[in-house]
Structures are given as structure tokens and as C-alpha cells.
Amino acid sequence: PSGRGLVVRPRRADNIKEIQLLEWESFAKKVSSPPPEPFMLYTPVEYPSVTPHIGDDVICQYGRGRITAISIVDMSPDKENKDCDKNSNTNTSSNDNGATPTQSPLKSSEPPQKSKPTPNQKPILKYTIALTSWRLSQTRKPIHVHLITPPPCVVRKHTLIEMDAHSKVSFAQHQKTLANAQFSKQKDYALALITYAGAVDAVRNVQHDHSSNNYVRADLVVVMVTCSNNAGMCCVHLKKWEEGRKFAQNALILLDALYQKRGRNIHGILNGEGLIDAKLFGEWRVKSYFIVGRCCLEKGEEDVASGVLKKGLAVGKVYLEEMGTEGCKCKINLEKASYKSLLGQVKEIRKLMAECVERKKREKKMEKKRAVAMFGKGASKHAEIGSENVAKTGSLSTIKNNTEATKAEKSTEKQNLPLESAPNTKIDLHSLPKQD
């Protein structure tokens, strides 16, 4: 009677259900003093569930799931007669003696009487539900059940805290699909950045439990890397250089960790599903290096940008050489697609490296102009004259050093003369002065 509601808590002691009314505003208008939000209803009555729609979370006799499709079951008499005809044709057979085939007892000789449907008769609906409460091991495909009666009961969607690892990864994949449309079709980079970042945050601190097998872990790596790189590209379009750099660096960390564990279960699952090494460690890593290099270049860190871009160029060249210089050695279509995308990425990196060199040249020219502006027009001439004086003083000092060296050599030669060559001198002791 009060509109749609949500059962918050059933109390087993007194069999009272606490229902939060979702359409409380329309009901509050009838009351003179409406209570504050939320409007609660406490009742022992078992109200029926709302009509299920596609995308609603439901509970059925097989567990919890999500409705993926709703179809109308055709229960008309013509449909039943056609089914009976098919069954009768399959049950007829011929004898070995050439006798005519006998008629099946399932087919009646009297024509069926068509029943006229009543105008108030409701169509019978069939609900297709993808179960989320349990699934088969060593696979990621959900189990689908088809229900006609009784209809499933609609329940509240789980919050992010209440989700298990598999549900969080599925939620992130759904967010990624929405963000791809916002990025490519709508060109709304701000909204796409919010959606990509939400997908990354949803699976950032996933606690693996019994529901997370190797397939869930493989999907987690793919969602984290692709959403981080795509969020970095959104930041490049929005000129948010620091945020874009962080997103791309996170993707590189994940890819490096996966590269260290190549050949194991998760790497084998990804390769088996078409994500070859040229895409995992080639395209995705080169894209991350490109984003980091672009952000560093726009922040004025040309040296860091050139180093990062060189790494990306080296990675791209390695995988291009593995697949063939002209792409003729590519055996499958996946390798051909990766080869083409890597060629485009390598070209973009080379353009960015050329831009980095040009910016360095511009900075040097600007520094010269600033020096001229600070010290005047003759600053460059004074610098040239100073360099010439330094060269002259340097040459004079070398000449002085050479002359001093020759003088020192001559003095050492005189001191080292033999005693025989010294002149004979006689000393007259009587000529010396007397001492008192």
C-alpha cells in the first residue's frame, strides 16, 4: 500500500519485517507531518515481490543470481499440435516385409479443439538467470537456469564491501565496458576517467577466497592493466599529467610482475584465450611507457622522458623482430593485429622522442636569450674575449713553467759536478781576520 520497499531485516522473534520504503516521498505527502528519511514500515504481512526486470538481482530455489533475459512462453494450441506432429513422425517406422507404417498412438484421429484465450489471461514468462552464488570450478562461465514458475524474488544489489572476489571482478568488467563507450563513442574523457578509476578501485584490494580461481586472477590482471592504461590516456587528454603518470606506472608494475611469472597458470590461461605475449608484454607495456614519457615531457622532465621512451622503443623493437620485420612470419591473425598496432606505437614513440629533442634545443636558446637580457647585448662578446684571455694566460703560464724547469735543471747539474773538475783554489789563513 505504501509503494515499493526494501526488506532491511526480518525479526525472527516476533516475525516482524523492517521495510525501508523506496517511494516514501509520494506517501509522505499524504501525511501532515512527514517523518525524516528513510521512511520505515514494520509489518508481519508477507508482501509479494516486485516484478523482476533484466539486470535485477534475484533469489530462486537454485540460489542467488542476476536476470539476463525474459521471454514469453508460447502456450497456444497450435504450438502444441505442431509438437505432437513432430513426435508422431519420429515414432513411425516401416516393417521389413514392406508393410505400411503404423500410426503412432500419440496422434489422435480427431482434430483438436482450439481453446479461446481469455482477455484477462496473463502471459507466462520465462526468466533466464545467471547464478552468482555458486559456479563450476576451473571455468569462468556462469551457470544459467530457466525458470517459469514460481517467479524469482527481487533482492537488493550487493554493495562493493559485500561482494566476493568474483563479483568484484565482474563489476569492474562492467564498469570497463561502460567507460569504453564513454571514451570512444561519447568522447567524454572526464566521465570515462571516473568510470575507469572506479573499476580500478573496485579490485585494488581484492581478498581472494574460495570463489577466486586462476581464471578470476587472470581476469583481475587484465582489468587492472587495461583500465589503468585507459585511465592514463584520459588523463593525457585532460592534461592531468601527474595522475596519468601514476596510472601508467601501476600498469607497468603489474606487467613486470606477470612477466616474472610467465609460463605459469595465469600466463597460460591468458595465452590460451588469445592474449599473446606480443600483446601482453609488447602493446600494453609500450602504451604504458608512452603515457609515462608524455606526462614527464609535459611536466618539463625531458631527461626522464627520453629515458622512458627509449625503454618503450626497445620493447617494441624486440617483439617486432620476433614477429618478422615485414610481418611475413606472423602465423595467426592475432600476431598480425599485434604487429600493426606495435608499428603504430613505435612511430608515436619516435615522434615523441623527436619532440623531446626539439624542446631541449628550445630550452638552450631560451637560456641564451635570458643571459643576453640579464647581462646586455655584449654578454656573448665578453664571454668570447674572456675565453681568449684565458687561452693566452694559459700559454704564458706554460712558457714560465718551462723556463723555470730549465733553470732548475742547470742548478742541479752544477751541484752534481765531480770534485776533480772543480778549480784549485788556495786559502791564505794569515789573511783571515783575528778573533778576540
In what range is the share of β-strand residues? 5-15%
Order of helices and strands: EEHEEEHEEEHHHHHHHHH
Kindly report the spatial arrangement of strands forming the biggest sheet: 7-6-5-4-8
In the predicted model, the low-confidence regions spanning at least 5 consecutive residues are 88-112, 413-436
Q: Specify the number of helices.
A: 11
Kindly, what is the distance between the CA atoms of the first and last residues, rounded to a whole number of angstroms?
146 Å
Topology:
Elements: E1 5-11, E2 16-21, H1 24-28, E3 40-43, E4 57-60, E5 63-73, H2 77-91, E6 124-131, E7 144-147, E8 153-155, H3 165-184, H4 189-202, H5 214-238, H6 241-260, H7 265-272, H8 277-298, H9 302-323, H10 333-375, H11 379-415
Antiparallel strand pairs: 1-2, 2-3, 4-5, 4-8, 5-6, 6-7
Care to describe what's here?
Helix 3 packs antiparallel against helix 4 (189-202) and helix 9 (302-323) packs antiparallel against helix 10. The model is unreliable at 88-112 and 413-436 (pLDDT under 50). This protein has 436 residues and is of the alpha+beta class. The chain contains eleven helices and eight strands. The chain has helices at 24-28, 77-91, 165-184, 189-202, 214-238, 241-260, 265-272, 277-298, 302-323, 333-375, 379-415, and strands at residues 5-11, 16-21, 40-43, 57-60, 63-73, 124-131, 144-147, 153-155. The strands form two sheets. The chain has a five-stranded antiparallel sheet with strand order 7-6-5-4-8, with no helix packed on it. A three-stranded antiparallel sheet has the order 1-2-3, with no helix packed on it. The chain is elongated.
